[in-house]
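Before the break, one more example. Copy the sequence into your notebook; we will annotate it together after we see the structure.
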Amino acid sequence: MAAPYNLADAVATTIAKLCTCDETLPMGAATSPTLSNIICSGLDSRLAYLAKSHGCFYTRYADDLTFSSVRRSFPRALAELEIDNGVAATIPGKELTLIVEDEGLEINLRKSRLLTSNDRQEVCGVVCNQRLNVLPKLRREVRAALHAWRKFGLEEAEREWNEKHNYRNALSFENSLRGKIQFIRHIRGQGDAVVAKLAYQFNELRTNSRPIAYSVSEDWKSQLARTSCCIHSYMDDGADMVQGSGFVVDGGYIVTNHHVIAKAGKKFDKIELTLPGAIKLPIAVEVLSALPEKDLALLRPTDDLWQQALPQQGSVISEVDAQRDDVVWLSGWPNYNDGDDIHLIQGSVIGFSYPEGVKVFRISQSIVFGNSGGAVFNEHGEVIGIATRGSDLAGAPLNVHNGCVPASWIKDLLQGALPLTNAQ
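Here is what the structure looks like once it is written out:
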């Protein structure tokens, strides 16, 4: 009945009766989201204005408030970190606190968190650093439940599930597991490899429930074999030779490391590539552009016929950067000999380094001679980085152990980097 709704007594009373049971508000009712939006309408408008005035974005889900920003420092009006005896605590800002309390609400200090891009930024159970993902804990729970169902049967798996997860006894084991897999599909996408594997196992085991729909994405490992290159660079006098790796991107261009095609500030006289998975003949290439400070170079065949022979649909470049603990595959042709298969090994992102102020991510796999310029793939089959030198060679421009430069830099190669000359 209060402003701004000003509903008549009969209407307000009818709504109140529909939303309550035995004169109390039941938890989890279908009407709860609408009621929380009514209560928080004034709060939302005031906090949205506060966030905007400090260069931030504001969102709310039920009673969870989230402020996000691309600023290098977070505004103290919203929150700040306070260190007490070596322990960091998030303290809500004064302006934020005043508005929340003025609306008759209270901030839960135990659930207040201030996170940077190097932290796992989780909102309502969804990781949202640069792409949406579910928590690793949820994936482990689902995999364990499917394994128990397959090995011990439905009855035993359901008993264990109810003890660990279904404390409210709300759903049957099969329906609960189905809902969790569908939630993972909603976040990661229907064509995701993890979703496909979980849905396939569930569909094999299900009793009377509907199958979970999923789509099988293209075998990106087969695509990789068609687009991954082996590169050899020579000086005319035969005094020097370097072998590296590379990969084709859309348009028939080849990406590799700068140090694969140049040494001591001078471009190699002859650069050739082969695609061992498709074209085994050496193809003469020229350097189209380069970013020496980022250890990247862009190549293309000198012969137009060979240019047309290369795959015109290259590897897909990821739109997001690597995060710690990401599962990745290192590809390439280390110490290549005729007849070798592509080198493809699974690992993970283990950290970051900043040589010469340039952010480089490190992987658990070993990058050895000949692997420089190889694509590093994520779980979606997208190139997320390019392998550069490890710490085995002195004087490397990005001399970090098993370091990779981010794939997002490739766009700089494709958008007008200067052509490379012998002076570069």
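Residues 329 and 345 are 5 Å apart (CA to CA). Residues 136-152 form the longest helix (17 residues). Try to locate both features in your own notes.
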